[in-house]
Each structure stands twice: as C-alpha cells, then as structure tokens.
Amino acid sequence: MIPEVDLLELDRRYLWHPYTQMKDFEKDDPLFVDRADGVFLFDAQGRRYYDTISSWWCILHGHNHPGIKAAIRDQLDRLEHVHFAGTTHEGAIRLAEKLVALTPDGLSKVFYSDNGSTACEVAIKMSLQYWKHMGETRRESFVSLERGYHGDTIGAMSLGGVPSFKGPFDALTFDSYRIPSPYCYRCPYEAKPPAKSPNHQITKSLNCSIECLDPLEKLLADKGHEIAGIILEPLLQAAGGMIAYPVQYLKRLAGLASHHRIHLILDEVATGFGRTGRMFAFEHAGIAPDFLCLSKGLTAGFIPMAATITTDDVYHAFYADYEEGRTFFHGHTFTGNPLASAAALASLEIFEQEKVLDGLQDKIDILQSGMERFKELPWVGDVRGIGMVAAVELVMDRRTRTPFSSEKRAGWMIYKEGLKKGLILRPLGDIVYLFLPLSVNAVQIEDILNLSFDVISGLNP
Ligand SMILES: *Cc1c(COP(=O)(O)O)cnc(C)c1O
C-alpha cells in the first residue's frame, strides 16, 4: 500500500484546509506534497510540479535553498525561541538594521510580528494611537481600496475589499471609507470601448487622468481631518485579482495622503522582496510610506515572520515616561523569532551575493512578453502583469467582458488541468496567474508559459 493513500484518508478525517470547500475533496484529493527543490514540488510518486504561485506568494530563491537551510540549522544550535519583551537577540537586531538600510530614509523602526494580517493590524493600531497621542483624536477612520486585501483577521478584513471573503462577518468588521480599485480592465470611468489593461505598467504613459482617484480627493477635502490613514497594496492588488495598476495612480495617491497629513500604509506583504522587479514595489513610484507592512517573502518562504516598519515621527509619539500611558500594547508570541530572523537574514544575503535583483529584468521581460500570446485565446479577456507576476482574466464574452457564472468553476477546471501538466495554477476565481519565484530561470519560464498556454487554450467551459 502506498503510504500517501492512508495519509489522505487521515487528512479527510482530521483536517480542515484554508480557503477550501472541503467537499471538493470527495472527488479530488488535495495534492500530497512530499518534498520540494528549487521551483519544483514533488508528490509521493516523485511527480514534479512547477510551484508557479511560489507556495502562496512567499518563495523567493526556490525551495530547499542551501544558504537559508544552513542559517536556520546554525541558529537552531544557538537559540530557537525567546519572548521579545524585555529580551533581545542578535538575529532580530541584525535583521532590523538590514531592513532599515533597505528602506527609504524616513523608515527607521521595525516592529516584528508573525504573519501578513498582523503586520497590517499593527500598522493601523499604531496609526490610530499615534493620532491620539498627537491630540488629533478625531482621526479615527481609515481609507481602503475596493478589491484590496490585507488579511483575514477582523481589522485587516475590515479594510479588505473582496466581498466574498468578508460577507458573513459584516457584523464584526468596522467601517472604512472605500475608494475605487484602479482596475483598468473594468474601469467604470471609461467612455470608449476597452483598451487592454496596460501591461508593463511602469513605463507606460496613461491615456486617462486617473479619475478613479477623484473620489479620494473629494473625501480628503471633506473628511481629511477624521482620517488616520490610507492602506493599500502598491502596484498590485494581489488577492483582489492580480490587478496590476499604473504607477501614476500610486504617485498621485501618495501626494494626496501627504497633502492631507494622513498616514500612507503600504501593504507589501505580497509585493515586497523583488516580486515586482524592485526590492519594494513603492520604489517604482519614488515615494515613501509612513508604514510598510512585510511578511510572505521576508523569510523567503521558510518560516512565518512579519515586520511593520515605521518612521521616527510615529515612534517618538509613543516614546515617553511609562506613567504617561503611551506604550504600544501589542505583541505576538512569536514576535522576532530567532529561526525566522536567521532565515530572513540569509535571504537578504542571497539578494546581495547572487545579485538577485540585477538578474531579474531579463526574466521579467521573458515572462511579460511571453504573456502576449494569451491575448488570442477565446476566453481571455485581459492579460496583465508586473515583475514576476502575470495574470489572465477569463471571461465568457470578450466583447462585453461578461464573467463566467460561478457554477462553471472555470478556475477550478484550470487548476485540475494544470496539475495534469505538472503546474500548480491556483486561480483566484477566474483569474489565472503566475506568481513566480525569483529564482526561476529563462528555460523554466518558457516551459511554464507553454504549459499554461496549453491548459488555458484547452479550457472548454
Ligand atoms: C497574504 C496577504 C496578507 C495576509 O498575510 P497572512 O500571512 O496570510 O496573514 C496581507 N496583505 C497582503 C497584500 C497579502 O497578500
């Protein structure tokens, strides 16, 4: 008997997987992953699958990277964990120093936590408390984007704009001001028939005046003094549908935030650490946030960890004699975990030693230009991308951009077909995307593109 069969039975008996309708496993087993190497995952029979979604957007230098494994092993012999209030350790200190060096001058203080949701919760709580300390107590609201995603805890969810994720929890979430998504393919302001959404957003000039920011401009003029901050994912709304958007949007938004003195909170949990071609996505816009939220790629996908980086200004609003009551009462058990710190430090060393960012542009060009051919396919309404991320939006009718009805489960069909061809495509609804590890090579990118093309062209909904 193959052990996998027994284990899958035990999985059904004991487990409940995230973002999964467990009944789907009656017909289709989850993929049993036995081991991984580089950009590949292997099942128990040794079949190989491209990890085209970087194991939920966190793998950077490939699975099984010897440098990161060695760093974790060394750390394991020294210190595996210690609470982080009243104690400190070398890894957390050295990592903070490196993160501050990598980010713009204004960002100078690192607050650790352990996942992307908490990185965002920390930012909004710090922002809110900051304004209390500054005596601007009316600043109690946040602005967020439709189709934005910041995690699944209550605060992060309150600022999320993906309706299906939060519907049942409306009673628990707080209100925020929601502004339109810069979703060019479904632009509500567009009078004339669609151009495709701009690919290679970063250099492209725009043929609009970013009307989707007018509501923010109005909102800030009216209510700016009640707003603590605005949170968004720079240049790529990832979970909202891999919506890559123009750099001009981010620039103008940052200008408005600064003009109205509200905090700019950039959630780079998905985009950080090279995925868009720069270390951080906001660098493309030449701006700097008041809060930068990092997780996923922080440890190159090896161990959970997160960081919220902020300014001296924010830090000093909390810095006072204890009796003044300005302490930030927030923390997580695994804050600044030493093994995670070691993995993150090793990942940043790999960036330097292997000159990862220098080598990226060629790969990005292969990926993004290779996506052009998908535009011919009958069900492909839009092709978009940035950096190592590329997506197609499947639609039932290209002319009207009408989506497939959800019962069709076009995305699910793609997932199953992908597995047969050795690809882990895990579409977001009907948006099929590649979110590639930075370590993927040119030949592998071509292979992934060819296989994905076969899968999508074979779709028969
Ligand atoms: C994944 C993600 C989060 C949440 O991170 P978790 O570690 O899953 O809590 C937050 N923001 C963005 C942009 C993400 O992609």
Number of strands: 15
User: Architecture of the largest domain in CATH?
Assistant: 3-Layer(aba) Sandwich
Distance between the termini: 36 Å
Give the C-level CATH assignment of the largest domain. Alpha Beta
- Average pLDDT figure: 94
The quaternary structure here is single chain
Strand content: 15-25%
CATH superfamily assignment of the largest domain?
Type I PLP-dependent aspartate aminotransferase-like (Major domain)
| Radius of gyration from the alpha-carbon trace, in angstroms | 22 Å
Q: Ranges with pLDDT <50 over ≥5 residues?
A: none
Query: What is the 3D shape?
Result: globular
Please state how the strands of the largest beta sheet are arranged side by side. Answer: 4-12-11-10-7-5-6
Describe the structure.
The chain is α/β, with parallel strands linked by helices and 461 residues long. It folds into 2 domains: 31-60 and 357-457, Aspartate Aminotransferase, domain 1 (Alpha-Beta Complex), CATH 3.90.1150.10; 70-353, Aspartate Aminotransferase, domain 2, CATH 3.40.640. It contains 15 helices and 15 strands. The strands form 4 sheets. It has a 7-stranded mixed beta sheet, with helices on both faces. The longest helix is centred in the N-terminal third of the chain and has 18 residues, at 116-133. The protein is globular. 45% of the residues are buried. The model has no long low-confidence stretch (mean pLDDT 94). It binds pyridoxal-5'-phosphate. The site of pyridoxal-5'-phosphate (PLP) has 14 residues, from helix 6.
